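ARCHIVE CARD
Drawer: 12
Card no.: 0347
Subject: one protein chain, sequence and derived structure
Cross-reference: see card 0346
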Amino acid sequence: MRVLYNNVATEAAITTTSENVNFPLGNLFVPALSTPYRSLATPVDLYLTFDVEEAINCISLAGHNLTTLRYRVYDIGDNIVEDVSLLEVEPTAMIYLSQSTAKKIRLTMNSDETYISIGALFTGMYYQMPYPIAYYDETIEMTNERFETAFGQVFGSDGEFLQTYSPEFVNITMAQFNAIKTMLQAVRNFVPLFVDMTEDAHEYKAPLYCTVSLDSIPNSRYVRANKIDGQKRTISLKIREAK
């Protein structure tokens, strides 16, 4: 399970070859996917340029209309150190780089529509979570409201279907527990992040653009811990899709 929550793309100088002033580049960092960046044409090149080489091994996209994507990673000498073309881009994509640092990233994007649209763009170092127990709860929540009158009439709204996962992590070290706590301190229960439950097995579960849907952090001492590893912990999370 991998999590990308520290978005260093916000620290980059971002430029593009096409931008709709009504849907500017700044919308890439608005949490709601319904407020996207859009271009005026396609294809489009988008550049992320950093002041120094940044630690980056993941690019994540959500709420987009891309059909193909080519990404090029540049080092501090402006040399291309990774050049990959994707003939298909998942609706919510977490793309793992072979490099771990970048001075500049160039995204060349195509769409079947007449413009490029992206709701969220993250880059940075993903956190490798410990593996959750195999059979955690999965739910599709319905956010619509339902009203019923005293006469049996029923009214409602459509709302959305939102995927949720409730992974539980047992027998984790204090270092892992503290790393998870650091992540939760950064995102709380409202800042979006990307979660890849199955890493490379996306045909089984696709990555999720989501929030942590908790008012508290359920955790306890691992019940089977002995005197040697008595500091082992158990922690539960609830991850809820965001749109």
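Annotation on reverse: The radius of gyration is 20 Å. Helices lie at 174-187.
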